[in-house]
Each structure stands twice: as C-alpha cells, then as structure tokens.
Recover the amino acids of this structure.
C-alpha cells in the first residue's frame, strides 16, 4: 500500500473512530449490531432526549455508519456500509455481548467525562 492510500485510510478510520467515541453513539451502535431498531427503541436504551438522540443519529448517518428507513410514521435505523459492522464486531464482543437488555425505566443521564 502506498503512503497516499495509507494516509487516506488512516484519516477515514480516525473519523469513524471519533464518531464512535461518544458513549451514547457507541450504545446505539451496539444495539444496531444486534438488529435494526426504531428511534423509540434507541431512545429508551440511550436514555437521552429524542432531540439529543437525533443529533447523534445525524452524525452517525453523515459518517456512513448508520442508515435510516421510514415505515409509516416510524423511522428505523440499521448499520450501514462494510466498515461499521467490521469495527463493531470487535467492540461488540468485548463490550456489548452478554449485557442484559435494559428494561424501560427512569431515564438516567450519562456523566460527562
């Protein structure tokens, strides 16, 4: 691989990893690694407001990590492109697998680092 191609790939990887580095976005991606989810399902898991979730989903869409589809009044999200599933496979095995599903309950805000 030549240096120009290596640099282009490194920039692409850095952008994807930066998009994935937020805890809310990573939880969303872990959920989508299992199956397509509605915005409502993702909102319950992420424990953030719908407007905050929409901003996170927009960034993930812009980076090519997720895609959306509309079914009536519902919007569903799934992973997109070859990179997201490959990157998430490793992360999923380490951080997401065997985590008990969250039951709907009071919303908790994530602490900011």
């Amino acid at each position: 691989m030549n240096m120009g191609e290596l640099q282009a790939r490194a920039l692409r990887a850095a952008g994807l990893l930066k998009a994935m580095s937020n805890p809310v976005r990573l939880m969303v991606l872990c959920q989508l690694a299992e199956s397509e989810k509605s915005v409502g399902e993702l909102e319950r898991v992420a424990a953030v407001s719908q407007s905050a979730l929409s901003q996170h989903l927009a960034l993930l869409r812009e980076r090519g990590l997720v895609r959306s589809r509309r079914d009536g009044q519902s919007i569903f999200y799934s992973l997109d492109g070859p990179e997201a599933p490959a990157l998430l496979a490793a992360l999923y095995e380490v951080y997401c697998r065997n985590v008990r599903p969250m039951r709907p309950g009071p919303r908790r805000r994530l602490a900011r680092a």
Notes: Residues 3-20 form the longest helix (18 residues).
